[in-house]
Amino acid sequence: MAVTTSAKPTPRLGGPAPRAPRRVGFSQKLSRWDVKISPYLYISPFFVFFALTGLFPLIYTAVVSVYEWNLLGGQGDFVGAQNYLDVLDQPHFWKSLGNTFSIFLLSSIPQLFVAITIAALLDQNLRNATFWRMGVLIPYVVAPIAVSLIFGRLYADQSGLINGLLTVIGLDPVAWHSDRFASHVAIASMVNYRWTGYNALIFLAAMQAVPRELYEAATIDGAGRWRQFVSVTVPQIRATIIFVVITSSIGGLQIFDEVRLFDTGGLGGADRQWMTTVLYMYDVAWGNQRNFGRAAAVAWMLFVLIVLIGLINFMVTRSISTSGPSAPKVKRAVTRRLLAEAKAAGTGRPAPQPAATTTNTARRES
């Protein structure tokens, strides 16, 4: 017969009796659950809304792209990659892709340079600085439809204000709706008008966070405004530049409102000379083809293209950002310079100057 022993520990001779295990109350368990679960509950609304508005449409679009899915007939047979092959065989797709990249380059590149220039000007000591800083945001508040309608009238071929001004100064009017490159310039000007001020405020917020002692040290070393901008401002806001470049690339490849409302037809011109990929996708789904399967294939190919371009931009801008002097090194150099000046002021001896400053001083004396 087996003998069972008690699991309770036996007390030592002459020692205190073992304390009974303390039960954890429900309130303490609830407090532990609160500490562990509450952070996830706080961030859950973002993931829930992202799953509903972002992840589910993305997956559902991938499902639609492998079926014969018509506007009137609904879901048809499974066709696999046939929708993708049909889209790649259509010449309008490749023309729309070229138009998208052309408008994207004409809008994003000048937009970034103008935005960072405006931000640098607004970062100076200006009268009514708040008024000017909020004024650059007014174009962003205007609805895209209103901007497209106004610029469509400005760039009218016969009675547009732009051609009227060109005629006054003795130049020939431009066929904004017939010439391919001219139409791209006109549409890019709409995009730049709306988004330049928005990006300028982002750059301005980053410039406001740059330590002022860096500019003071650069001024002591004899650096002008341009040298301070290149050597101090740009290296300190490189993370913001990466962010703006990536977001501008994503938005530039999804242009739709401006090209849709540039003329009354809304199909990118008679020869599709300014039709973008998003407008082509709209035409495939709701135009003559009315094929949701092919439109979903276009959407997924555009999604993959945007991801690839975003990764390329991220790697290029990140390699550029890591090649220059980092912020901690600059701050340590400035701190050493200020300490040297403070010691020199206390002892009456001149502070040691960097090699570049000493060379410049010798040149000025000679």
From TrEMBL:
The membrane-topology field of this record reads: Multi-pass membrane protein
Gene3D superfamilies the UniProt entry points to: MetI-like
Q: Which InterPro entries match?
A: ABC_transporter_permease (IPR051393), MetI-like (IPR000515), MetI-like_sf (IPR035906)
List the GO biological process terms: transmembrane transport
Q: Does the keyword Transport apply?
A: yes
List where the protein spans the membrane.
40-63, 101-122, 134-156, 236-256, 297-316
ABC transmembrane type-1 domain spans which residues? 97-313
GO CC annotations, alphabetized: plasma membrane
Keywords attached to this Swiss-Prot or TrEMBL record, sorted alphabetically, are: Cell membrane, Membrane, Transmembrane, Transmembrane helix, Transport
What is the protein's name according to its record? Sugar ABC transporter permease
The uppermost taxa in this organism's lineage are: Bacteria, Bacillati, Actinomycetota, Actinomycetes, Micrococcales
